[in-house]
Amino acid sequence: MIASLSGTVEAVSLDRTVIDVGGVGYLVHATPATLAGLRVGERVRLATSLVVREDSMTIYGFGDDDERHVFETVQSVSGVGPRLALAMLAVHTPDGLRRAVASEDLAALVRVPGIGRKGAQRITLELGDRLGVPAQAEPGPSSSEVGTDQRDQVVDALVGLGWTTKVADETVSTVLRQADAEIVEEADVAGALRAALRILGAQRG
Questions:
Q1: Which among 106, 117, 184, 203 could bridge 140 via Cys, Cβ 3.0 to 4.6 Å?
Q2: Dist. CA 96–CA 102, nearest whole Å
Q3: Ordered alpha helix ranges (H), the chain
């Protein structure tokens, strides 16, 4: 089990990064929010989970141990594999998922690509309280708390995920106007990106 990696960021792409650890480059799959915080040439520590299959060994990386715990726990639900678990964390923070499961908020869960209503019902039923109790929601950021550079990072990340610049820009503007702590949970790029993905997921659904 590879529990964490500490090294230098060699490359960052849409859904993965390469971390140089002692001269060995490890390919790590991660959420857009995690990848948005990485910079080529800088050192980083990622909590990781190694998924072994008959024909592959895949490393998934997370900003902290709590994200990894949630990633591994949700895979105990039938039909939820590592890719879907990662998609859940791309749209929701760990506490966002805890709140959705605890309150049986199916609408929040179906915003994740690949989860329908029946799947959301199964997730809430099978997970129960295994994710733990969500922390108190913190106030979300105002537009003044997310600077121009950070805003551009979120727009660029959404464009990289396939949305047009116009749609990405309008969605980020919506996020920054939104004062509801349930929509924006962190005053940073990762929080704004997750919020934008939630909005776009709801529009698609």
A1: 184
A2: 10
A3: 32-36, 65-74, 82-91, 94-102, 106-109, 117-127, 148-160, 165-177, 189-204
What's the pTM value of the predicted model, to 2 decimals?
0.72
Residues in the chain: 205
Rg for the chain, CA atoms, rounded: 17
Strand, coil or helix: 12? strand
| Alpha-carbon distances of 75 from 85, 125, 169, 194, rounded to whole Å | 6, 13, 33, 20
Token pair listed for 135: 């922390």
Strand pairing category for 24-29 and 4-12: unpaired
pLDDT tens per residue, range 88-133? 998 888 998 999 999 999 998 998 888 999 999 999 999 988 998 8
Q: Can you tell me the distance from the alpha carbon of 137 to that of 170, in angstroms, rounded to the nearest whole number? A: 25
Dihedral angle sign, alpha carbons of residues 60, 188, 44, 169: positive
Distance of CA 61 to the CA centre of its chain: 11
Judge whether 178 and 184 are in contact, CB under 8 Å: yes
Q: Which domains, from first to last, does the chain contain? A: 4-62 (2.40.50.140), 65-127 (1.10.150.20), 143-204 (1.10.8.10)
| pLDDT mean across residues, the chain | 83
